[in-house]
Amino acid sequence: MAVSEEESSSSSTPGAANNYSSSKQSASNSNSAACYLAKTVLTGSVVLQVVRGHFRSPSSSDVVFGKETSIELVIIDNDGIVQSISEQPVFGTIKDLAVLPWNDRFQAQSQKLLGKDILVILSDSGKLSFLSFCNEMHRFFPLTHIQLSSPGNSRYQIGRMLAVDSSGCYVAASAYEDKLAIFSISMSAGGDIVDTRIFCPPENEGSLKTASGFTNVSGTIWSMCFISKDYHQLSEEHNPVLAVLMNRRGSFYRNELLLLEWNIAEQAVHVIYQFAEAGPLAHHIVEVPNSHGFAFLFRAGDALLMDFRDAHNPCCVYRTSLNFTPTLAEEQSFVEHTIRIPDIMDEEGIYSVAASALLELSDINKNDDPMNVDDYSSKPGSNYVCSWSWEPGNLNNPRMIFSADSGELYMIQVLFESDGLRVNLSDCLYKGLPSKALLWVEGGFLAAVVDMADGMVLKLEEGLLHYRSPIQSVAPILDMSVVDYPDEKHDQMFACSGMAPEGTLRVIRSGISVEKLLKTSPIYHGVTGTWTVKMKVSDPYHSFLVLSFVEETRVLSVGVSFTDVTDSVGFQPDVCTLACGLVDDGVLVQIHQCGVRLCVPVRAVHPEGVPLSSPVCTSWFPDSMTLSLGAVGRNLIVVATSSPYFLFILGVRSLSAYHYEVYPMQYVKLQNELSCISIPQKSLEHSLMNYADNNHPMAIPAGVNIDNIFVIGTHKPSVEVVSFSPDKGMKILATGVISLTNTLGTAISGCVPQDVRLVLVDRLYILSGLRNGMLLRFEWPVASTEVSSHHKFVGSCLVDSHTSLNPTSPNYGVPLIFTSNPSGMAKGNFPVNLELIAVRRIGITPVFLVPLSDSLDADMIALSDRPWLLQTARHSLSYTSISFQPSTHVTPVCSIECPRGVLFVAENSLHLVEMVPSKRLNVQKFHLGGTPRKVLYHSESKLLIVMRTELDNESCSSDVCCIDPLSGSVLSSFKFDPGETGKCMDVVKVGDEHVLVIGTSLSAGPAIMPSGEAESTKGRLVVLCLEHMRNSESSAIKLCSKAGSSSQRSSPFCDVGGYAAEQLSNSSLCSSPDDNSSDGIKLEETEIWHLRLAYSSIWPGMVLAVCPYLGRYFLASAGYSFYVCGFPNDNSHRVRRLAVGRTRFMVMNLTAYFTRIAVCDCRDGVLFYSYHEDARKLEQVYCDPVQRLVADCVLMDVNTAVVSDRMGSVAVLSCANHLEDNASPERNLTLSCSYYMGDIALSIKKGSFSYKLPADDMLRDCDTASDNINLSCNSVMASTLLGSITIFIPVTREEYELLEAVQARLVVHPLTAPILGNDHNELRSRESLAGTRKILDGDMLAQFLELTSVQQEAVLALPLSSPNTVMLSSKPSLPNNVNQVVRLLERVHYALN
């Protein structure tokens, strides 16, 4: 559960002061050696780079988002929706990102790389990294790293910008200033990716050779690109040409363009052409694809098309105005000569000869003179290009869409015609915010990424761009409030997101997002099973929904309304259905305890039904036995009995029109009772043939009939894969015995399979959910590996089998005995022993596996204590929680109206939700306008209080407003005076009521001098009362639903807005990612909360921080000073300053816990103060050991503070080891531990996205169960500038030492090491004192769960003999097996996922 801010502050407990001494003592013991684990629960959403390529396969159309600290592989589907495929942290900071396209001349080092593009990244590791996507591990892995500079990337070190040759033969990397390097790519078999390299200028020289002397690269590098050549007409060796746009320091000229040629034979770089101009500022140089020598130079106000085919004598062939006048593009004629810029610079850094322009146009008039900088820049309508993207696959007449700084999108087309070259500029295609990055992908879709707001996917249709879907971004998160969600019993967070004019309030929830469409009344008691059934195998949508109860079955039609059609379908209504499905087109099967019923529905309920008045039905009954299990597949029915144990294979045949028969084809006596049966709904034959043809390990040898294959789970316990053919009968293909032990070596009970599924994604494997809440993955052993003698086959549960009394069967009357062969895989015989690849615990209740479609590679919902989405394409076992309440049953429901529907049964109600692919983040958006700065949750009114600035309002630019958290509507607001800006606010207790204390600024300009001292400013302290104004007629919150509430009496639903629905309740909000409304709930207009001004006073400085103190005071800061204030006689209309404290620098933040006060200024960091009530004096008792520019701070207890700084680091400071007797103001706090995030945490709160495990002790090790700390109560949540959320979880000393040893091995193991080549220890140690304990990296440790059991054992067995290995705080003995580590990390994953 989340811990509210009130609980962590002194104002929440009236008797807090009385418990001070005891709490201090316990805090001293618990935090003297603080140990934390940092886990990212929401990755940063800021997209800085976006590229396309063929990363997963030569035919895939993939998009990669570069997000500074992570990379995300996505696709844009046919509907224009961005769907995430894989996202991974890079454990570093991405500086630039580009694609190295596959070249036919390359020879792949591995067949897995053949035809696939490579991702090239520059990062703060100082390395140039080449990454390839691994389909098996479902993530990028490094191919090689090239060291360019020391970690950190100063502006003079190479590591800022990338340029890749269009042919994939060359890569260039530059520094911010003065340096660049060029690399030759030669992917030869067995060789390195980088063949040769050269630095510019050379490391031992400071200048470059030109035609007439020497020059240097001294200035800021703005942009660069390769000038491609027609390589089909060139020899193997050719010299690449790189165009570099730069601004030279100390030069009169604003732009300089260098053409650099790398003479590979001489291994030297020459400047073959050099231009300079003092005209409009040039921003980008961009090559025209497939043009072999043309490039655009984008300047402020125009775009110049350059001809670099003769690199020694380039010219401009076209100028396009970007002033967006009616004449959009004008062809220009140019003089024959160009003005050459001298190659020699004088000592002052100024050219000795003035040059007029980069290019001289013959028809330039005075107003267009690029030398006239002031006049040019002030021209109305002058625009520049922010971002651009070329159309993919256009080889003849390239088209580019670009974004202007005004937010308008235009298209440029380059036409190579017989009469010459022409450039066309379109009218405005779309108007929005300026785009930071654009990407044109296949299908006519355009991904547009903008700053501090949601991006968007547009589609080019009929000459215009049309909006299709959002690219969600919650950055920056300026403030947050963590609140419990009472109905669904999990946490949600309200965040101030974005900046004006796109400021929003975001509701962020944990887990995968679902859109709640409806909820029925809680009338569905005793549901035992749910299924959806199609009428034909090829149907895209489901036709019927089957609900099974303890003594009843109901069949509902799937459509606009769910109508009871049990009688028309033919299912027996007075029995409990065990299983059902489609056995053939139009033929349904119901399995119940007494027998098997075959039904053919009538045409009245489905167009494919029989034209009769009643359905066609026939049944099969076992002799004197009761069925316990069953499954239905294509032309196959499998049922099992209990007491005695038999397995029956049933077939269906047509005797005449509308006349069918169910008959037994074979039955088998069982040694052990079956616990589950699963039949794949699609044939495996075609898939497995491709599986073998693609050189994958042979899971099933050729020659075996695999048309009918199914999987069973037994009470042995085991899982077994069985094939059946009418002529050969049943055959056991593979068996996996389930024998699990805990960390003490004791057998784990309850390992009977509850559900089992066959999956085919790159390889064939089996998933099994157990009755004790565990999840298992089995795989076939590799074909080339002999099964060792100690892996003996333990036998199947099948004893003997008998065919049916069918005279066509060749085995009539002959028992089939199943024998084992331990080396079956090597010889192509069966059965074989399955290998247990991974084991995970996802709860304590039985695990049900429900595929989201009939495909063998479909993702699944794993249903235990709560629902999880199991991603079948991922390596090992990868699962993420679904943002929905615990449920007992689930089934996919696919209809025209709801193609991605999922039906949950929870709390005796049916819940129809939709998996929302467009919501990569589980975030709801309320547009507020302006910039939301602060947010508080008012528990009494259940409203949000939001402070906004930069409002587009003539009367005020800042206010405080009350927001309905369900609809996002503004209910009331308090407007500040013109020119006044809100800075801080908090809720303070006054007697029995709560008031809102606000600090503002009355002065324009900055609050702080560069030295850290406070500017001379004014501010205001405001006290507001939140009053409840209730109408006597009605004061209740009313539920309202959309029109259309009537339906047939037999339906459990009513039609609501086109969907089937019954009564909507609090948990059935229908809201899209961008919808501000709440379909179903609104506050009555008579339910009014009003903000009333109670007190206002001018203060000598901006009031930047306020916070409650001791339940009856509050703290407020202004300039260097902070004050203890109170309300005399609990009168909210009066405020008295009781004491004052002063610091050396501007006070930025105040926080308190019991009597402890933490003051944060802009340089000295965190200062601890105590307040003496009797003397009314403030005393400083501790200070920060280092200078620190604090971003936010929270007190965990009276001795411990967690603080974030504006350098991207989080630290835990403590005074628990000190005694306050003889305290000195110079005594430093102890730096307990630290963690470099690489992102600025603007807001820190106590609390967590966390779930309480139903029986947490089952996941704990016996020796540490009593020492565990509740995750929520002591966790810290941090939201960042990049839109990420990280939780810092306290762990015990023993857990810390164990995980520290595991982390030390993960950071060096090839499968889990940082993919950009960062030294992990150096990375997390930045901005910290040497020798400080590091907070554990939960993202690094989480990779351990993505590995198979064998890989996990290999990681733990890795010796730490490298001199670069991180020094461990101690030398704990690693566990003999991986169970202890897995169980500990599973608890963290379960709690936070």
SSE inventory with pairings:
Layout: H1 5-8, H2 20-31, E1 36-42, E2 49-53, E3 62-66, E4 70-76, E5 82-89, E6 94-100, E7 118-123, E8 127-134, E9 139-147, E10 161-164, E11 170-174, E12 180-185, E13 194-200, E14 208-210, E15 213-215, E16 219-227, E17 241-248, E18 255-263, E19 268-277, E20 282-287, E21 294-299, E22 302-307, E23 315-321, H3 373-377, E24 385-390, E25 399-404, E26 408-417, E27 420-425, E28 430-431, E29 435-441, E30 445-450, E31 455-461, E32 464-471, E33 477-485, E34 490-497, E35 504-509, E36 514-519, E37 527-533, E38 544-549, E39 553-557, H4 566-569, E40 577-584, E41 587-592, E42 596-600, E43 616-620, E44 627-633, E45 636-641, E46 646-656, E47 659-670, E48 674-678, H5 685-693, E49 708-714, E50 718-725, E51 729-737, E52 753-761, E53 763-770, E54 774-779, E55 798-803, E56 816-817, H6 824-827, E57 832-833, E58 835-841, E59 848-851, E60 860-863, E61 867-870, E62 879-881, E63 889-893, E64 901-906, E65 909-915, E66 923-927, E67 931-938, E68 943-949, E69 959-963, E70 970-975, E71 981-990, E72 993-1001, E73 1019-1030, E74 1038-1039, ...
Parallel strand pairs: 1-95, 14-19, 51-57, 90-94
Antiparallel strand pairs: 1-93, 2-3, 3-4, 4-5, 6-7, 7-8, 8-9, 10-11, 11-12, 12-13, 14-15, 16-17, 17-18, 18-19, 20-21, 21-22, 22-23, 24-25, 25-26, 26-27, 26-28, 29-30, 30-31, 31-32, 33-34, 34-35, 35-66, 36-65, 37-38, 38-39, 40-41, 41-42, 42-43, 44-45, 45-46, 46-47, 47-55, 48-49, 49-50, 50-51, ...
Overview of this protein structure:
There is one protein chain. This protein has 1393 residues and is mainly beta. 6% of the residues lie in helices and 43% in strands. It has a 6-stranded mixed β-sheet with strand order 15-14-19-18-17-16, with no helix packed on it. Strands 44-45-46-47-55-56 form a 6-stranded antiparallel β-sheet, with no helix packed on it. A hairpin with a 2-residue loop joins strand 31 (455-461) and strand 32. Its main location: nucleus. Residues 47-464 form the RSE1/DDB1/CPSF1 first beta-propeller domain.
